[in-house]
Design goal:
Number of strands: 18
Helix content: 25-40%
Strand content: 15-25%
Radius of gyration: 25 Å
Length: 541
């Protein structure tokens, strides 16, 4: 009897590529164009379902940020990619490397524009770092291998579009992958660049440092603390940064920069040189006239992000690894030679508990959280009107101690929290989210419950878009949008399988945090606290 040897398929060759690159957790909300890839998925590849593509990409982004490696996403043709675009934009700005496979209709009748066919290559605009639709089915494994490298190098989502019939097509002979097995990216320094920066710093009477997400690593923190101590310089966090670039409990930490030009000039006025590290010059919010800094203040930047470097109005820009450059600078520069007083702002005073029957304020919640969370907590923020106070009451003490959507779009925090906890299962993970923000991807809570993700979601419930109300007040006109006090966030969470608890009084808040926080790292199920608060009375980022 003649034996028939099974033909190796493109799908099987792709599975091997995924294993080789550590892409064994797959985040998806699939459709019919993905069935051929997913049916019979091997046991060593883990499938994570999100109920909306924004949740899918948000979870993958958190997973990639937490692991410091690419994460894998599978989307369903036009509808799936279209729904995911905002989250992909956030992933790009948050430097989250993603390999994104997008399904397409059958290659054999694409010219006839069949049902579900998509014009996919430009759909996500300029946010992907690389987009490819392989010319042949047999080129798919190579394209996905290359996408893994492109995502890391470009710090964002790399997209591969795969027609549905490609998966079961025969792979060609011995696997020949048109991509390297590994890419080594050494943190090279240039003695000339270091010398030029050192000369600027040595000539400065009063230098200051501004740090951002590009310095959110153990190596960069170590180098920057050495540099700040040698210079005796204050270190500011960029405004609206997605990650902390410096330990915020260090004596050299001076707080977050304001996000408008007049206050920015006032804060930096006493410094004749400002060096931005892993941050652009300078992230702003509302436009106000005038220069970024006072005349006579020189600006320099060190970043490994070409876009960040090229758009910064600096006297000197160095495109290089921040940790390597700052480490070399710290070794080269002389120390100040005398003790330097701490410049870290004193934390805000504890808010007085509300009167009986009076409402909690966001400050009550943030203060009580700040008293209890451990130093290794991963805190995810998406409460725009409360962010300035949160940054003061909950300083980041590790490079993952604060994570936020640097793009500014809502819908990141809930799914990213899930992905971060999946990536870092031994660390406590807490999200602080406004109720308006939570509604953008509330369905992510189903994934947290279904996969046993033990994160804590603290939702500040004020029944309105408080930040929008504060901005409308600046225009001296009433807002056009209504409040949404009818929405029951705890009820929504419960309907999605996530345990939820309403918190109304200060005693209830203290009791539940005392119960939950000490065992947060060991939690195996998610918990949502819907904390009723009065809206923030002002907003001044």
């Amino acid at each position: 009897m003649t034996s028939v040897q099974a033909v190796r398929t493109v799908r099987e060759a792709t599975y091997d590529v995924l294993r080789a690159h550590g892409l064994t957790t797959l985040f998806s909300n699939p459709g019919s164009t993905e069935v051929a890839f997913l049916a019979g998925l091997p046991d060593d590849l883990e499938f994570v379902l999100g109920l909306h593509e924004g949740s899918v990409v948000g979870m993958a982004s958190g997973y990639a940020i937490g692991r410091g490696e690419p994460a894998l996403v599978l989307l369903h043709t036009t509808a799936g990619l279209g729904n995911a675009v905002s989250a992909l934009a956030t992933a790009r700005v948050n430097r989250a490397p993603l390999v994104v496979i997008v399904g397409q209709q059958d290659r054999r009748h694409l010219p006839l524009q069949p049902f579900l066919a998509g014009k996919l290559e430009g759909l996500a605009g300029e946010y992907p770092v690389w987009v490819d639709q392989p010319a042949r089915a047999q080129d798919v494994p190579s394209a996905i291998a290359r996408a893994a490298h492109e995502a890391v190098t470009g710090r964002g989502p790399a997209i591969v579009i795969v027609p549905m019939d490609d998966w079961l097509a025969p792979a060609e002979g011995p696997a020949e992958i048109a991509a390297p097995t590994r890419v080594v990216r050494p943190p090279a320094t240039s003695s000339r660049a270091v010398d030029e920066l050192a000369a600027l710093l040595a000539d400065a009477r009063s230098p200051a440092l501004v740090v951002g997400a590009g310095a959110a690593s153990d190596a960069a923190w170590s180098a920057l603390t050495d540099l700040a101590d040698r210079l005796g310089a204050p270190v500011f966090q960029e405004s609206f940064g997605g990650r902390p670039g410096f330990p915020q409990d260090h004596p050299r930490f001076a707080g977050a920069l304001p996000a408008d030009r007049p206050r920015l000039r006032a804060v930096l006025a006493g410094h004749d040189l400002v060096l931005a590290v892993g941050a652009p010059i300078f992230r702003q919010y509302s436009f106000e006239a005038g220069p970024l800094v006072e005349p006579g203040t020189r600006l320099a930047i060190v970043s490994d992000d070409p876009d960040e470097v090229h758009r910064s109005p600096a006297d000197l820009a160095v495109l290089a690894d921040p940790a390597a450059i700052c480490s070399a600078l710290a070794r080269q520069l002389p120390g100040v030679g005398h003790p330097v007083a701490s410049v870290t702002p004193a934390p805000p005073a504890a808010p007085t508990p509300p009167d009986p029957g009076g409402p909690l304020r966001p400050g009550h919640v943030l203060h009580e959280l700040g008293r209890r969370v451990p130093a290794d907590v991963i805190l995810v923020e998406e409460s725009p009107s409360s962010r300035p106070e949160l940054e003061k009451r909950l300083p980041a003490r590790t490079p993952l101690g604060f994570v936020s959507a640097a793009m500014g779009g809502l819908g990141f925090a809930l799914p990213a929290t899930i992905g971060l906890r999946m990536a870092c299962p031994a660390r406590p993970v807490v999200a602080v989210v406004g109720d308006g923000s939570s509604l953008y991807q509330v369905q992510a809570l189903w994934s947290a419950a279904h996969y046993g993700v033990g994160a804590l979601f603290v939702v500040l419930v004020n029944g309105r878009y408080a930040i929008m109300d504060r901005l409308a007040e600046r225009h001296g006109q009433p807002s056009a949008w209504p409040a949404f006090e009818e929405i029951d966030v705890a009820g929504l969470a419960t309907s999605l399988g996530c345990r939820a608890q309403r918190v109304v009084t200060h005693d209830e808040l203290v009791a539940v945090l005392d119960d939950v926080i000490p065992t947060l790292a060991e939690r195996e199920r998610p918990l949502l606290l819907a904390v009723e608060v009065a809206p923030d009375a002002e907003f001044a980022p």
